[in-house]
């Protein structure tokens, strides 16, 4: 493989890994606070892509405004899901909330099929995202650079919120001890709702960029990316934002480079991610940066 070809695949891996990382952050934020795996997160990802599609085609919003509107609406959906499906189960065993998340996942999938139809939709892409940039022997789509840069900026914004703001302090306090946070006057439900809103906004941004990268929408489009992002979160250390980012990037790189070096294994790229999950759970269940957390069942 030539150097130019390797760089081409490495850029594609960076793009895919950035998308996985954004979705994985939503999983790890919710788990870090509630010890809950939100399996409806992949459907939130899907809704973000559909919302921007309808904002452009039905309401004729300019593309940048459509993206902002879709992210805000998706964040609201995430907060609503927490209010309806998870908040009533705050004091219930974690398995109850887990079952609820699976139910929400199937509900949102089927609702999307009824409302949006199961017919795949083509996604509008601005012309400037399709103009190929040639650097030596490497051909780069602007989207290949746009996705990692925007993902990096969103991650920096999240880290600022978590470590430099009062709501972020509340998130970190709740992640350590939710009962003590109640006693200390932290508005726990509001902070948790904000966590769901931020995680859903990041999933929406990832869904929109995914739809631009792979321009086809369908109601089940969030299933496989959602599972892979969950694997990335576990690999990096569930509950660790930095771990989710690194896990997503590693998974994206390995997936693309595996197909590049071993094209005969292209049909097994999804299976590889799940095999990786099995090995992680067997040999390092806390992931690369995760700490051992106590859980109640």
Q: What is the helix fraction of residues, given as a range? A: over 70%
User: What's the CATH class, please?
Assistant: Mainly Alpha
Instruction: Note the quaternary state here.
Output: single chain
| CATH architecture identity | Orthogonal Bundle
Order of helices and strands: HHHHEEEHHHHEHHH
Categorize the overall geometry: globular
The whole-number mean of residue pLDDT values reads 88
Radius of gyration: 19 Å
Number of domains: 1
Given helix and strand content, the structural type is: mainly alpha
CATH topology: ABC transporter involved in vitamin B12 uptake, BtuC
Q: Helix count, per DSSP?
A: 11
The biggest beta sheet reads:
2 strands, antiparallel
Unreliable stretches: none
Number of strands: 4
Distance between the termini: 50 Å
In spatial order, strands of the major sheet run 1-4
Q: Into which percentage range does the β-strand content fall?
A: under 5%
Helix and strand topology:
Elements: H1 3-34, H2 41-57, H3 63-86, H4 94-116, E1 121-122, E2 133-135, E3 138-140, H5 142-164, H6 166-176, H7 178-183, H8 188-213, E4 216-217, H9 223-236, H10 241-261, H11 269-283
Helix pairs in contact: 1-5, 1-8, 1-9, 1-10, 2-3, 2-4, 2-8, 2-9, 3-8, 5-6, 5-8, 6-8, 9-10, 9-11, 10-11
From the structure above, extract its key features.
single chain, 297 residues, mainly alpha, ABC transporter involved in vitamin B12 uptake, BtuC, two-stranded antiparallel ribbon, 11 helices
């Amino acid at each position: 493989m030539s150097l130019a070809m390797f760089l081409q695949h490495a850029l594609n891996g960076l793009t895919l890994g950035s998308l996985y990382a954004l979705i994985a952050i939503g999983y790890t934020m919710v788990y870090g606070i509630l010890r809950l795996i939100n399996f409806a997160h992949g459907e939130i990802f899907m809704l973000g892509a559909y919302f921007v599609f309808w904002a452009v085609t039905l309401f004729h919003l300019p593309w940048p405004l459509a993206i902002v509107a879709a992210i805000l609406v998706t964040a609201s959906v995430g907060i609503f899901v927490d209010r309806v499906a998870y908040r009533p189960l705050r004091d219930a065993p974690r398995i109850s909330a887990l079952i609820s998340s699976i139910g929400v996942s199937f509900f949102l999938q089927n609702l999307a099929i009824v409302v949006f139809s199961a017919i795949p939709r083509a996604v509008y892409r601005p012309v400037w995202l399709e103009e190929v940039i040639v650097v030596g022997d490497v051909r780069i789509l602007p989207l290949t650079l746009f996705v990692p840069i925007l993902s990096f900026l969103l991650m920096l914004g999240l880290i600022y919120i978590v470590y430099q703001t009062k709501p972020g302090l509340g998130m970190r306090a709740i992640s350590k001890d939710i009962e003590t946070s109640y006693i200390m006057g932290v508005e726990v439900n509001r902070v948790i709702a904000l966590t769901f809103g931020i995680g859903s906004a990041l999933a929406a941004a990832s869904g929109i960029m995914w739809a631009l990268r792979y321009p086809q929408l369908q109601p089940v489009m969030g299933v496989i990316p959602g599972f892979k992002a969950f694997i990335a979160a576990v690999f990096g250390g569930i509950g660790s934002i930095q771990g989710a980012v690194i896990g997503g990037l590693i998974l994206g790189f390995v997936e693309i480079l595996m197909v590049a070096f071993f094209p005969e294994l292209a049909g097994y790229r999804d299976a590889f991610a799940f095999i990786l999950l099995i090995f992680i759970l067997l040999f390092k269940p806390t992931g690369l940066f995760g700490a051992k957390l106590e859980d109640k069942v």
